Amino acid sequence: MVRAAMKIIVEIEFAKYYRFLGRCDPTSSEYKLLKCGIETSDPRDSTVRLVMMLCASDEAKKLLELAEIICPDAVHDIRTSIDLARTP
Fold first, then answer.
1. Taking Cα atoms as reference points, which of 71, 72, 73, 59 lies closest to residue 28?
2. Could you list the mean pLDDT of each consecutive 10-residue stretch along the chain, which spans 88 residues?
């Protein structure tokens, strides 16, 4: 039996997302994953804009590792998403 990788919804606050995206190498897999994000509002506070991405748990961990190096502002949002491990 093959077990599918767990999917995680990663949410990053709008400004942090664009800062992170702008610092990524456009040829990297992390950049491609970030580009697939969907802009939305936080359901708890409609004034807060978010970008959501559905990714495998290993992809989320790679985003976290890269954010720790190039965009520390995004680390908290990514880590929180991983810790919640919300699935669609």
1. 59
2. 73 97 97 96 90 95 98 97 74
